[in-house]
Every structure is written in C-alpha cells, then in structure tokens.
Design brief:
4-stranded antiparallel beta sheet, 2 domains, alpha/beta, about 325 residues, Alpha-Beta Plaits, 6-stranded mixed beta sheet, Rossmann fold
C-alpha cells in the first residue's frame, strides 16, 4: 500500500467475562481509502471500532492513527478522528446550523472559519436548504446526515461510520452513500461498518469480512470473490431450438457449463458481461430466439456464506 497509512490496527482483542468479542483483529487504512467491516449484527464491528477510536479499553493489540499511538487517554491521535456512532448525537431543539456550530466550538473552532466550515458541511450532507430548521423536525435519514456532518466538521484524517444507514428511508440512504463516496475522493480515510453487502460493494476499496470477532478474510471485492472461484450465472429465456443452442453455447470459450431448464438456457460463464455478445450470437445461429437475459455475478454475500456457512442477515 503506497499511500500513507492513516489507521493501523494490529491484534485487537476484547473479552467480556467469558465472551471473546474481538479476537486478533488487524487491518490498515490509507489516505483516500474506504475500508469496510462487513458482518452481521453481533459480529464484533462496533466493539472493534470502539477500540480503534480509543473509546473502549482493549485487552490486547495496538492502534496508530495518523502516525500516533492511540489509547483511551490519547488526545493527539483522537483529534484526527471523526466518529459517527450508531446512536444519534444531536440536539433536537437546535437547528442543523446551531448543532454544527455547537459541536464546532467543542472542537475549538471559532468565528469565521467555523461559520464557513458549517456552510461547507451542510452542502456535503445535503441539508443547506434545511439549515435553519430544528433537528427534531427532521426525518430519521436527515438526522443521520446531520450526525455525519458533526463528524466531518474538524476535517478529520479518519472518518469512522458505524452502520450509518440503519433505519433510514431509501432517499436518505442514497444521499448518505453519495456523501461517503465524495469523502474518499477528497483524500479522507474512511472506516465503514455495515451488514449490507450492497453498501460494501458500492463504497469500499477493500473489505474485511468479520464474524464472531474474527476477520475471516480481507481484500478488494475482486480478491474476495476470487477466493470462492464462483463464475457468473447467465439465464437466457429462449424459444426455438434450445438443444442446439445449448450445444453451441457449451462450445464457447467463456462457458464452463450449459444446460436447459424450463424454457431457459442456464450458463456458468467466466466474465459474462464481456462474453454476452458472443453468447447471444451463438444462440441465434443455433436457431434459438433469445427473449430475455439475466446475469447474476458472484458477490460478497456469496463470499460470506462460503466463509461462515450462514447468510449475512441470519
């Protein structure tokens, strides 16, 4: 990893009585990178980030933030972190702008620089037009976006988001995801926890799959999917000479398996989207009229199932 590391976590361990909540968790995040901790509820995500942010005392391991060692009593390292917890940390009787001004002062921001930064953050989180409305009047999704804005105020080197889209409407969820996408583009390191596979695939440069307090695997989406050796699955709805089409498609270089099932041709393909034009041509030349195409690519849900034997949302 050639970029400067903003967060380095090594061998984190936390035990609650007889429960090992986190066991030897290690990962690192570079500037401009979004790293996802993907796992179901109770997997150890929140406990891991609580130790990584110096909120929770760890039983083992080390944490460095922006080159500084971090403990629960650190100040320099913590100043580089913007933490957005699952629980909302806003004042409902204050407006969005007043909330941001209040928390900005806690960060020792003052006068015009604070006022200017509040305006910037309101734009980033999409609340400029509601800046002077009371936060208590906001939807759940808008409150979440304001929560994120508070974490962004002091321009942290590392932004930590713990399940930021839980319980929000689809429109607000998409607005949150768009905001996070822009942050890494601006060079901020982002640690993002979620149990939504589609969020991890959309946002994260690398993903750590965590379950029962252990990192089961880590890598880019492509690296993780390659672990299970799954190819794409293509279903062609077709009429005509299905048997001839199956034989012709089986001979295609990208096709591993071809079969017929209930008026459809089912294929297992290496790189389906790239191979699709050739597959459609072969089916047509064999006498099949293709009326529908469905491509299912391997995803992180399949990887999680392979590694743990259970679905993400079990």
């Amino acid at each position: 990893m050639s970029q400067q590391l903003v967060l380095e976590v090594s061998g984190l361990r936390k035990v609650f009585k007889e429960l090992v909540a986190v066991d030897d968790v290690s990962f690192a995040i570079a500037a401009g990178e979004t790293y996802g901790l993907l796992g179901p509820n109770g997997a150890g995500k929140t406990t891991s980030i609580s130790m990584a942010c110096g909120i929770l005392e760890r039983d083992g391991g080390t944490v460095r933030v922006d080159g500084h060692d971090l403990t629960t009593s650190s100040t320099t390292a913590k100043a580089a972190i913007g933490l957005v917890p699952q629980d909302l940390a806003i004042y409902p009787d204050l407006t969005a702008r007043e909330n941001l001004m209040f928390f900005g002062r806690l960060y020792d921001m003052r006068a015009k620089p604070l006022k200017d930064r509040v305006g910037e953050v309101l734009a980033i989180i999409g609340l400029s037009d509601r800046a002077d409305d009371r936060a208590g009047q906001f939807s759940g999704g808008m409150k979440r976006r304001l929560n994120i804005g508070i974490g962004l105020l002091h321009r942290p080197r590392l932004l930590v988001l713990d399940e930021p889209t839980v319980g929000v409407d689809p429109q607000s969820r998409n607005a949150i995801l768009e905001s996070v996408e822009h942050l890494s583009d601006e060079g901020m390191a982002v640690l993002y926890t979620t149990h939504y596979m589609e969020e991890a695939e959309r946002l994260c440069d690398r993903v750590g799959i965590i379950d029962e307090g252990l990192i089961k695997a880590e890598g880019t989406r492509a690296q993780l999917v390659s672990m299970i050796g799954e190819r794409d699955r293509v279903s062609l709805t077709a009429e005509g000479n299905i048997a001839a089409a199956v034989a012709a498609l089986q001979a295609a270089p990208a096709v591993d398996r071809a079969s017929a099932a209930d008026g459809s041709i089912v294929l297992v393909v290496d790189g389906a989207r790239r191979a699709l034009p050739d597959l459609l041509r072969r089916a047509s030349e064999a006498g099949a009229d293709v009326t529908g195409v469905d491509v299912s690519e391997p995803n992180l849900e399949a990887v999680f199932l392979h590694l743990t034997g259970k679905a993400l949302r079990d």
